[in-house]
Amino acid sequence: MSKTQQVFSKTQVQRIVCGALVGLANSLFGGGGGMIAVPLLKGTGLSEKESHATAILVILPVSLLSFFVYFVQGYFDASVAVPASIGVFFGGLLGAKALQKLPVKWVGVTFAVLQAFAGAWLLLTR
């Protein structure tokens, strides 16, 4: 098959696989797909900031799908979700503004520290 007949480029296939892994993690763990999306997207050629911004967008559809599945199964508590959603909205605005201003190095360092903290928290609280 010639290059002109290829349906997807190597990079596009990598990004499809990345999306599948992110969707699996996000659905399986109830979130957290962005934690693997950022390094995987960087591996496909995106910059640090592009990876963070893209991860947020690709998480939206799988989060909505996961919510629907959990909602149908009765795993939804509006008394928690509504106030938390308000906080997430304003935190998201603050984070988006910070991403624009922070140096690339500090975005990566902050992300790595938060990942390590979250991992340690999960291990130590079980």
Task: Provide a descriptive summary of the structure in words.
By secondary structure, the protein is an all-alpha fold. The protein has one domain (3-124). It is built from five helices and no strands. It has helices spanning 10-29, 33-43, 48-72, 78-101, 104-124. The chain is globular, with a radius of gyration of 17 Å. The mean pLDDT is 85.
What's the short version?
With 126 residues, the chain is an all-alpha fold. The chain has helices at residues 10-29, 33-43, 48-72, 78-101, 104-124.
Features:
mainly alpha, globular, 126 residues, 80% helix
SSE layout:
Layout: H1 10-29, H2 33-43, H3 48-72, H4 78-101, H5 104-124
Into which percentage range does the β-strand content fall? under 5%
Q: Tell me, what's the shape?
A: globular
Largest sheet: none
Which range best describes the helical content: under 10%, 10-25%, 25-40%, 40-55%, 55-70% or over 70%? over 70%
